[in-house]
Task: inverse folding
């Protein structure tokens, strides 16, 4: 029998996980999960990708409040009664949302901890954010309401690693004990406790996966490097599954995971083998200059531009923030991720340099 073994929430985006014996599932995810996030003074979200020390912040629930602790800091109590009423614009990946500012006192605490000015925002009743191309809401999670990880898949990964990782490296909401590793790749719809979930999309992994949740440090590009040797598919390195709840209800550790519908699993291979087998050389023309870079059909456009000494502004390197967009004027490309683009930008021929691989000679406008 496949079972739900662990449930985790992260009340503030990127902080340490809180284990729960049971949780209420809402449309936008687990109750209390990612209801707060930090932003810089321009409203850009801040996460553990760029600020891994966030993963060392511990949260405890008390009545109507959160108790926030971190090394060398006084404890902070966050209470909704102290929130101001100000809604302000914030950006999370390519989504623009209106979120509630909490309190300057909280901003000061987090600014001191991060050593950079920032603000704490709350996902209030007026905040609205949708899963891309869907009518279902999501809180401040990366893109989907919940993330599922199969412990059997973690163990198979560990068999290839010198230093084992835990499921928490992948920041899941729910950990299941599957019948065998990567069985979750073929799930399309599952039921846990009172809730049915659509298994929407494999989770594409970024270097945040390399941050050790115990220490907040990453050392040797693992486990991402090892994952790239057997979990590569169409430009992504996948681990775990994004879920969309189809109804509200309770889930509890120990619940059976019932598979209601399946689908064909993607064919996974090695990023390196894929590159070696199909390599072809090509030219990348940067419009507005006479510069033509010699590249190939294997590497990301952003990497190839950098190797040629061309700076394309970027941030997440994961296809989400939209900063690296360039307009494709001629040639063929494969786009791995377009989450950071609006539909209009896609129609206008924009692509994300960090998530695009040229297939032929191309011409682009920066
Ligand atoms: S979408 Fe963020 S850097 Fe490319």
Result:
């Amino acid at each position: 029998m496949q079972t739900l073994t662990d449930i985790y929430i992260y009340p503030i985006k990127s902080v340490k996980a809180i284990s729960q014996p049971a949780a209420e599932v809402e449309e936008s995810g687990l109750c209390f999960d990612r209801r707060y996030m930090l932003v810089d003074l321009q409203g850009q979200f801040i996460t553990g990708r760029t600020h891994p020390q966030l993963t060392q912040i511990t949260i405890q629930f008390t009545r109507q409040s959160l108790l926030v602790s971190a090394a060398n800091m006084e404890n902070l109590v966050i209470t909704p009664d102290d929130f101001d009423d100000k809604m302000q614009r914030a950006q999370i990946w390519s989504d623009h949302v209106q979120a509630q500012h909490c309190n300057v006192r909280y901003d000061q605490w987090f600014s001191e901890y991060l050593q950079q000015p920032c603000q704490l925002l709350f996902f209030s009743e007026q905040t609205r954010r949708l899963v891309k191309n869907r009518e279902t809401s999501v809180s401040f999670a990366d893109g989907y309401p919940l993330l599922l990880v199969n412990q059997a898949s973690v163990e198979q990964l560990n068999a290839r690693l010198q230093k084992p990782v835990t499921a928490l490296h992948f920041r899941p909401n729910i950990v299941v004990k599957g019948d065998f590793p990567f069985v979750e790749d073929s799930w399309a719809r599952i039921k846990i406790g009172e809730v049915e979930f659509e298994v929407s999309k494999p989770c594409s992994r970024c270097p945040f996966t390399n941050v050790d949740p115990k220490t907040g440090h990453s050392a040797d590009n693992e486990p991402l490097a090892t994952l790239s040797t057997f979990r590569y598919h169409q430009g992504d390195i996948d681990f775990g599954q994004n879920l969309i709840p189809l109804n509200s209800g309770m889930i509890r550790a120990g619940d059976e995971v019932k598979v209601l519908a399946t689908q064909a699993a993607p064919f996974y291979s090695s990023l390196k083998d894929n590159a070696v087998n199909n390599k072809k050389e090509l030219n990348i023309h940067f419009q507005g200059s006479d510069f033509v870079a010699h590249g190939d059909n294997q590497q990301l456009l952003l990497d190839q531009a950098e190797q040629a000494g061309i700076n394309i502004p970027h941030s997440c390197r994961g296809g989400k923030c939209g900063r690296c967009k360039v307009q494709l004027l001629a040639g063929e490309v494969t786009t791995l991720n377009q989450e950071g683009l609006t539909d209009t930008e896609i129609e206008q021929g924009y692509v994300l340099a960090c998530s695009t691989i040229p297939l032929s000679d191309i011409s682009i406008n920066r």
Observations:
- The longest strand covers residues 195-204.
- The domain at 1-277 is CATH 2.40.33.20 (M1 Pyruvate Kinase; Domain 3).
